[in-house]
């Protein structure tokens, strides 16, 4: 197995599961993990656009789990393109060169961004070609190439997990909590928008289901060359879920609001300032973030259930209780 991004949140959980199944794993990452090295994981130390090292890492491999990506809501298009498109292209070329049989690609639901509410959306939506963020645009280009690369020699599938969370999440929940504690979080829009998420262990299950499906069926079966939304299948009211976590941790809930048009205007102004002055880091608001915080984003996962055999094991209630307990344990004593 080759896992790109095997030291990240999702990738590391995937590596743990593969090791538990007794499988040999190579991780492609810029910085090796001493703990994984001690457990027998081999490392190919490189960035995704290092074509020579990427090709060498694919030698003798039957399955590539391509989890790594440049993620973010802000940044230069060229940087996203280099990692997300050119890096994926280099991996696909290496797979063809070395006869890799299966390619499981971690995409994102934002590849179907259209600026509107997505309520019960399915895989028939077209890939985005217009978005105020480079991440969805470059992930859409990469997903298209992955799906077009599907054939008898190399079987491919794209998974679109939405808002991966759980204990150990270094991004989603910690950023929300930090902003709330700093008094910088506002309810954007109506405040009743429904959003899908996926617990990290369910996201790993989907990766393994996809690999098994590609391996078990001629030509990859119904999964070959297709994309699948991956969620818990339990949309939640986003702001109520955030406030439930805050209150469980003894924090004040978010009550201050900003209308979506105002948030988008603030986002556009921040983008202009950051771009003009070439400021580092992400702006406090962007047009893309404003839309994501205000609109419905939940998806029909019946295709993943039917064609991949994917069944979410950890419910939103179970995962949230586990997360709250871990955050309480990690909180410094008064």
Description of the molecule:
With 334 residues, the chain is α/β, with parallel strands linked by helices. It has a domain at 2-166 and 198-231 and 297-314: NAD(P)-binding Rossmann-like Domain (Rossmann fold, 3-Layer(aba) Sandwich), CATH 3.40.50.720. Helices cover 44% and strands 15% of the residues. It has 12 helices and 15 strands. The strands form 5 sheets. Strands 3-2-1-4-5-7-12 form a 7-stranded parallel sheet, with helices on both faces. Strands 6-15 form a two-stranded parallel ribbon. β2, α2 (34-38) and β3 (42-45) form a beta-alpha-beta unit. The N and C termini lie far apart (46 Å). The mean pLDDT is 94.
């Amino acid at each position: 197995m080759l896992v790109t991004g095997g030291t990240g949140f999702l990738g590391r959980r995937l590596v743990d599961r593969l090791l538990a199944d007794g499988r040999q794993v190579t991780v492609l990452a810029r910085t090796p993990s001493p703990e994984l090295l001690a457990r027998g994981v081999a490392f190919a130390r490189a960035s995704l656009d290092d074509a020579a090292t990427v090709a060498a890492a694919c030698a003798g491999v039957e399955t590539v789990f391509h989890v790594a990506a440049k993620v973010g809501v802000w940044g230069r298009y060229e940087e996203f393109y280099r990692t997300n498109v050119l890096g994926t292209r280099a991996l696909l070329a290496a797979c063809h060169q070395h006869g890799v049989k299966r390619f499981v690609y971690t995409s994102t639901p934002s590849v179907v961004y259209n600026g509107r509410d997505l309520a019960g959306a399915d895989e028939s939506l077209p890939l985005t070609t217009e978005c105020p963020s480079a991440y969805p645009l470059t992930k859409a280009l990469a997903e298209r190439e992955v799906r077009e690369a599907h054939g008898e020699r190399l079987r491919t599938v794209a998974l679109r997990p939405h808002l991966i969370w759980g204990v150990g999440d270094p991004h989603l929940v910690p950023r929300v909590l930090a902003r709330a504690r700093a008094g910088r979080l506002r309810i954007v829009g109506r405040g009743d928008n429904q959003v899908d998420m996926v617990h990290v262990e369910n996201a790993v299950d989907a990766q393994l289901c996809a690999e098994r499906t590609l391996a078990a069926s001629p030509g990859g079966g119904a999964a070959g060359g297709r994309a699948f939304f991956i969620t818990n299948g339990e949309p939640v009211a986003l702001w109520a879920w955030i406030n439930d976590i805050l209150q469980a941790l003894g924090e004040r809930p978010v009550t201050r609001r900003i209308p979506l048009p105002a948030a988008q205007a603030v986002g556009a102004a921040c983008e202009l300032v950051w771009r003009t002055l070439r400021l580092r880091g992400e702006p406090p608001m962007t047009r893309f973030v404003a839309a994501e915080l205000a609109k419905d984003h939940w998806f029909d996962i019946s295709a993943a259930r039917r064609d991949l055999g994917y069944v979410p094991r950890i419910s939103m209630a179970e995962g949230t209780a586990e997360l709250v307990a871990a955050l309480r344990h990690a909180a410094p004593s008064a």
